[in-house]
# Entry
Amino acid sequence: MSVFDRVRSRLESSSEPASESANESPPTVGLFVDGPNVLRDEFDVDLDDVRDAALEYGRVGITRLYLDEHATPGLIQAAEARGYEVVVTSGDVDVKLAVDATAFVAGDPVDVLIIASRDTDFKPVLEYAGTAGIRTVALAPGSHGRSDALRNAADDGVTLTE
# Structure
């Protein structure tokens, strides 16, 4: 199925009468968190708040936190205890997150893609997801950590309160 067929299918299903769509399950959300850019001392971000923001968009089916090899065992353990799948990479966190998020979009298992970051490197991922008919959200760690480029590439923007 091509990207255009998926978009057409989503548009057709969104125009169904309310009585039919009321029986549908909530949208499936894919949450991808750029740990090095979100979990910084100056933002004081709580992973529970990040997940709660994602829950506003539907059922969170994919909850991934990407970290580099310098992540402490305590951070990894705390994230796993909160239900995050932790991906530790020795390479560039941005590349791994972008590739994984794009793969999920291409496979179409999510209805909403949320990228928590302040890094404009993820703009192409949000744009690609949008062309695939997937709702996109740019989640910023705080007002001074918000990327206008990410926000403008996404359907919605959420800024965690500080």
